[in-house]
Amino acid sequence: EGAPVSTLMEHYMLDTMLDLAGFGEGEGQMTTGSSNGNMIAMLAARNQAIETGKEQGLFGHSPLLAFVSADAHYSLDKAANILGLGTHNLVKVPVDEHGRMQPQALERLLQQHSQNGKIPFFVCATLGTTVRGAYDSLPPLVELREKYGFWLHGDGAWGGAALLDDELKKHFLPGIEQLDSFTWDFHKMAGTNLMCNVLLFNHHRGTLRCVCSAGEHSYLFREEDKNAELDMGTASLQCGRRVDSLKWFLDWKFFGKKGLAERIRHYLALSEYAEQVVHGIPELEMTVPRESFNVCFHFRTPENIPANEFNLELRNRLFKQGISLVGIAYIEEKLTLRLLITHPDYSRADVDSFFSNLVAAGKELMHEHLQG
After folding, report:
1. Neighbours of 43 (CB within 10 A)
2. Which long-range contacts (CB under 8 A, 24 or more apart) does 183-187 make?
3. I need a labelling partner for 341 at 20 to 30 A (CA). Which of 32, 85, 109, 119 fits?
C-alpha cells in the first residue's frame, strides 16, 4: 500500500534477474548489499539443515560447518558469527595458483569433518574474488553438492556483472543456473547508485518468507489480502526500506542489458590493456597474473628497500597529493596495488595517465629512499 509502483518495479527486476541467471521457480529480494545477501543465504541453508533451527536455535545439534574459499569475502566470517555458528566453524578451503577454490581440497575437508560428526551444510563459491578477481569453478562444486547435500551459494558481489553479457557469462559463470542461491551488487560494475543488491534463490520459492518472517506484524503486513504475494516486507530482514528498485528499474530501462553488457566488456578490455601497460614498464610488475577485471601489480624495489612498506608509502603519497586513490591488498603476504576500473568514461588514455603519474611518484620516492 505504501509504495505500490516501486513494488511492481522490484518484482519486474527480480523476475528479469532470475531469468538471466537461469533460476527456475525461484524468488529474489533486494538487500542492503552482498554482505547481507551472503548472510541470508547462509541463514536459509542453516534452517534447511536444522528444521527446528529458526524456533529453537542450534542447541543440541551437531556443529554446522560452512566452507568458503581462503580468498572469500570477510562478510562470510561475519555471517558465521551473527548466525551462531562460530567463526571457527567457517572452514577456509585452499586456493590454486589462480586464486580459485580447490575442489579436491574441499572434498577432503568435507569427508574429514563429516567423519568427525559435524554437518557440512553450506558452501560459498566466490565469483570474482575481491583482490584477484578469481572465479571459483562451479561444475565440480555442483558435483560435490549432489554427493554431500550442502547448500551451494554464489557470491557474485563483484564478478556477478559478467551475467549481463552472454559470452562473459559462458566464460566466467558456467553452471550458475545450478546454484541454490546467488547474490550480486548492481552498484559495482553495473554502475547503479548505492545501494543496489539482489539476492536470488533457485528452486526455493517461499523460502525467503519462511526464513525472514517472524513475530507479530499484522499491523503492517496483510498476508490474508489477495495481493499479499506482492508484498516484499515479510520476505525481508528489514522493516523500513528505501525505494532502491526505482533507480535499478530506470537504469535497466535506459541502458538495457545490451548497454550494460557493453560497459562490462569495456572494463574487461581496459583491464587487459592495463596489464599490458604494466608488462611494458620496467619499474612495475604484476603481483599475480590477471584473472578477470582486477589488475594486481606493484612497484619494483631493490633488495635493501622493503617492497611492502615502499608500495604502501607510494600509494599513500598518491592519495595525499590528490593524484589517485588506488586500492591495496595482500597476496601471500605481499602487498599489491589493485587497479579496478568501474567508470564508463574511463579510457586507455586515462589508464596511461594513471600509470605515468604512479611511476613518476614512485621514481621520486625511490630517489628519496636511496638518498636517505
Report:
1. 20
2. 183/31, 183/34, 183/37, 183/38, 183/41, 183/153, 183/154, 183/155, 183/156, 183/157, 184/17, 184/34, 184/156, 184/157, 184/160, 185/33, 185/34, 185/157, 185/158, 185/160, 186/248, 186/251, 187/33
3. 32
What's this model's pTM, rounded to 2 decimal places? Answer: 0.94
Average pLDDT taken over every residue of the chain = 93
What does R_g of the chain's alpha carbons equal in angstroms?
A: 22
Within a domain: 251? no
Same domain, 237 and 281: no
The answer to whether position 158 is within a domain reads yes
For 141-177, give the DSSP string: HHHHHHHH--EEEEE-TTGGGGGGSHHHHHHH-TTGG
Q: How much is the pLDDT for 86?
A: 96
Give residue 112's domain range: 4-242
pLDDT digits (tens, 9 = 90+) for 354-365: 999 999 999 999
Greater pLDDT, 279 or 2: 279
Is 153 in contact with 45 (CB distance < 8 Å)? Answer: yes
Residue 95 DSSP label: B
Our count of domains for the chain comes to: 2
Q: Look at 271 and 207; give whichever has higher pLDDT.
A: 271
Q: What is the phi/psi pair of residue 155, to 5°?
A: -95, 95
Residue 119 grid coordinates:
554437518
End position of a domain, from candidates 242, 271, 297: 242
Confidence band for 338, pLDDT divided at 50, 70 and 90: very high
Looking up cell 593524484, which residue turns up?
Answer: 323
